[in-house]
Amino acid sequence: MPKFLIQATYTPEGTKGLLKEGASGRRAAVEQVVTGLGGQVEAMYFAFGEDDIVLIVDFPDPVSMAAVSLTVKAGGALRTRATPLLTLDEIDEAARRQVAFRAPGT
């Protein structure tokens, strides 16, 4: 199953909701969304700094990740970034593939 790193920052309205609901309430909401699309939450951490929350999730396909991303962003409580994560074996496979490429100016 494709794995994704999600980094999110709460908007002021989202922070108010977090203070009202608590971290465990947000964990339950995230679990419901992810498992509802056939995925799994591997890890979820709150942080401080540029990101307020960091997750590693598995989804059956990238379209499921895109659906969650669009829905969450439309809600306006979070600004998010999703990064696909690749295994070592996937990178080894990519390194073995032949790619016809010519650098600019060569």
Automatic annotation (TrEMBL):
**Pfam families given for it?**
GYD (PF08734)
Q: Which InterPro entries match?
A: GYD/TTHA1554
On the tree of life, the source organism's domain of life is Bacteria
In its UniProt entry, what is this protein called?
Answer: GYD domain-containing protein
